[in-house]
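ARCHIVE CARD
SHELF: 3
SLOT: left
DATA:
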Amino acid sequence: MVRSRFVMLVCSSPGGGNSSVVSYRFDSATGTLTESATSPAENPYYLSVHPTGKYAYTVDRVSDGIVSAYRIDSSDTTLTRVNRQPGGGAGPCYVSVNHDGSYVFVANYGGGTVSALPVGDDGRLGRGTTIRFKGESESGDTHPHSAALGSVENIVYVPDLGRDRIVTFRLKRDGTLDSTVIPDVTVPSGTGPRHFDCHPNGQFVYVVNELNSTLTGFEVVQATGVLREIGTVNTVLSPFDGENSASDVRVHPSGQWAYASNRGHDSIAFFAVDDTCGQLDPRGTVCAGGRTPRTIALDPTGRFLFAANKDSGGVAVFEIDTRTGTPVW
């Protein structure tokens, strides 16, 4: 039997009048999204869920940045904070959990740092280790915008929007991040790499670039985790006179499609993926269902796409046409 009901967690920052994590129940049989609980949180900016589904982690924009661990109550979907630890820098913007749930990675946009924090069997966070980036580019100071594992074991990619590069780390056994072995990938000045997602075959990585509204594909060298650029496509696929910044990217579980969100154009762009060479074929854009789609996600079945529209304060639900990859709202 295919599971049809899931829980979705959404960060709500004080700018929307409410600082909390909102829980929704989603029924993929009907496409219905229903709010089920609101759990107090202190300016949560981004969220990631432990692979067991028992714990959630937020980066909180308070003082110099905090990472909070929560236990998820399976009966009523409320969150109870387990503990919190320093995130290693100001302006945290991203948190992720590795595949076995043993480490959490944090990107601190304002502090120019990346941290790795150990996770205990009870979901609690331990004290982390932090690396501070150095250097400048024409785009400005260093600004790590995300940090997560790639498809190669213990390889962590960090898109640095400020320096227009993707830094590759190896997670060592002692929990430290080592960037001395694998060279950085540089992209053209003013590109602004932001978030990335991996193709399910493990051979390709796709990076969304905020500043020039593009999506770049990379081939992954399996022996080392080194990235080799495949090509770049625009995320705004029709004439547009306004300002836009691309924000997020997701690859469909089938590997056939990729999706990117546009803030300003307020749209979701979708692309066909050639799973033999990784090339992207632009297919179109659809309205995001609201203003400023900061984050997008796909449900585990691959039938639905969600867009969290920051400035209109809602989550739009799209059903994906499996023949064309089109998100239908």
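SLOT: right
DATA:
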Amino acid sequence: MKHVKSPLYLILIFITTCCFSQQSDRHSPEATAAEAELSFWDIPELEEAYINPAPADRKDGLLVGKLGIDGGNKEMILNLAQEIADNKHGPFDSFLVLHEGKLVFESYYRKGRINLPHPQASATKAYTCLALGRAIQLGYLTMADLDKPVVSFLKDLDSTKFVEGVEKITLHQALTMRSGIRISEEQTEEFEKNPDQLKGQGQVQAFLEHSAPVTTASQSFKYQYDPIFVMQVIEAVVPGSAKDFIKTELLDKMGITNYEWRTDVSGLPRSGSGTSLTSRNMIKWGILAMNKGRWNGEQLIPEAFMVKATSRILLTGDDDVYGGGKDVSKQGYGYYWWSSDLKYGDKNYLSVSAQGGGGQFIILIEELDLMIVVTDHNNDNSTLQVTAERIIPAFIR
């Protein structure tokens, strides 16, 4: 005999489901107003980890799903999350997974809070890159301008004081950490004693006056302050300020309101570090990159620029791969976005990532339509290796 559920029973089920959903969201780890005023290092650690294989819809512009139902091996990811909670993989603060456009897993540990912006360190470079891409999309620059000298965009400079070879520094060179600028430690200390000389374009003037000569040999990959040149060009070409441009043309459009973007000594937004974002807002930057510059159907960044920015323009070597391990190889660099092959079994998966000191990662694996976001406070991390060994196999069909 077929059992027919009464309307009252169905109503009770609906109420129970709603209450469970609200309770789950209410117990997500949120920073109090007092905690939000503290420095990151003073944030108290969570008493217990928050692990959610069915993230709540927080009406923040992200689609949500359920791990196992919308993709992924639920047991494998939950086992990894428990190991993270047990401190077997270093001091993670958050670990999130987006698959096929849906946030299917969300977890927070230690200093992680769902509503608390986390320091991004050098992942800021990737955001600076995308700000330049937005300027190209709006016509303030062109793709051809990438091969023009940086100094051609900065009209307040005194070229008579430049060291030899400055005209070799194109936007493309600066975006790939190959400006060729070499500043001694002694000169850096002098800059710190007299920060007023670094206001506005004075910052670039100082670098171009006091560098060693720029040569073909010096224009090799060196991880340094080249993003400063890119932010200065953004400031020079967009209407208003770079700060307002980034807010209006990128952050506002993606619904990112809970963030910090600190100001450099020049008065411009910092370009190589200095941002703080919630983990969910890191996901948004990743979506923009994964969708080749599109956000909610609008092309915010030219696809051609996005493809170039996330491509492996140069190989940087496998001697020191940040977050790497035995299954991570062919480390490369694009426009402030890193790349590497992640091996599982006999197959390599290309990963592209924004990376920041302390263990901040936005990892994109296009072949699997997969994104992993991690915040951490440990430079001695193995996040890319963990992705290759533990996360990729959970999403292979």
